[in-house]
Predict the structure.
Amino acid sequence: MARIELIDPSTSLAERLAGAWRYPLRGAALATCLALTVSHYVALLPSFFGVLASLAVWTATWRYAADCLLHTAHGYADPPDVSLATAEQQGWLLTGVNVVGYLLCLVCAAYFPTLFWPLVIVSIVALPAIDMSLAFDGNLLLALNPLTWLRVMAGFGVAYLLPVAINALLGAMLVVTALAASHLPRLIGIPLVAFVSNYLVFLVFHIMGSMIHQRHEVFGLQPQAQEIARATRQDADEQLLEEVDALAKHDPRAAIGKLVARMQDRSSPVAMHQAYRRLLKSQGLHDGLITHGQIWIAALLANGEQRRALGVLQESVELDPNFLPDDPENARQLIDLAARTGMSRLAVKLCRSFIATWPKHTLVPHHALCAARLLEEPLGQPTEALVLLSRVAPQWLNHPMQADMQALMQKLQTPKLPS
């Protein structure tokens, strides 16, 4: 049996959302998205047959999206393989609800235009609650009850606005993309609209699944992926962590050895790295923490987990003020992220470390400018900014950023008039 990739339960919703945009572009989701995009060419068939065939393609889209929702809600990290198995009743209920909602909007647009926008607004707001209720209750009548919608909304709080916002974005993108496509040949316009639609549908259903998985205990859902992993003993990491916790009480060095052996074998979940770092801290093994920080930061960045990598970087800098990722590109990513997220002092510190560590690297002017701008505003240290640029700029006279450095230096040298 193939290994099941599980969603780490300790991952926050914000971290899940940061990587959610990649979900429709991975594995079976991308293949399905592309296949359904091509399938939308059935719209070129004669009127009645084209409409009927397009409805079938949309049904297939929502059917796969329903699988994405259920798959994610049950703790699977990877998109599901394509399956139209009728045994999955919840998947077909989810599909049916969305197809009926789509048809109602079309009917209202054609025959009852005054009801169209009210129906669209109700659909945007209520459909996420209906879909998520079907995912964890599996009861259609219960899901259609407005009281259930309120229960779901209350259970998620402000986070419920996420799928609502993406539903609204989906509608807006469909209109904008359709208008743009109307000025293109149909052979180009049809797949353009279809791909954007498929991507957003898969994305919103995946996000709803992530929300359910994160709060599955509130709604009484028991994730299947974790149960299967335990039953098949394919994932012994949880058992190893339990053994390590027990062993650490009387022999922490042996516990560290067990974790090292496991992490050298293959890629490890976040919980494994966190347990390893806790043990190293408890034993005062700062050099080990620094070495592990370098390795884990590189692995996190390779997997697109920039924010978690930045957290590890902060821990490492607290242990060693001169700490810097050992790869210039990794350092650049984290410096830029720190600057974007308002961690100005950390970003300046890293910029200076980068310049000192790799003085001949072509990114030096970039980081010098970054640090100078942060020193000027918001840190309010224009003199420090000028000193830094005055030291770096003469060494990079032919660099494309030389003009930017000179402009900022001139600005910093110009005395401000009293207000």
Summary: Residues 186-214 form the longest helix (29 residues). The chain has a mean pLDDT of 86. Residues 193 and 389 are 48 Å apart (CA to CA). DSSP finds 20 helices and no strands in the chain.
